[in-house]
Amino acid sequence: AHLGGDEHYNYPPDMERFRLNWDSVPTMPSIRAKGAILHFVSYVEGKISRIRHDVLEEIEGLDSVMDMHIYPQFLEEGNEISKTVDIRSDTGWAHLMNDDEIEFRRDYDR
To answer: What is the pTM of this model?
Structure first.
């Protein structure tokens, strides 16, 4: 790929329109939305005695939550779980995004 800057480069006639005008690219992009990837953490270990489906549905229903997944082993009562110690032992994740910073912060803090 040619990214420009070499004025001696001869573009094929049908490709000139694809050349990127670097002067039109802002130094700092504008922020249009806030976003985060959250990883759910287990602070305890032992047997799962209860699944709070109402809480999971509430989180999933937040305006900023674009997608969410709880790993299946954490959705079955009686399963043994360990404390989260790294990314491979988290219990799931959520993708948050919102163009309203106040809503994003509210949902993130929830």
So the answer is: 0.69
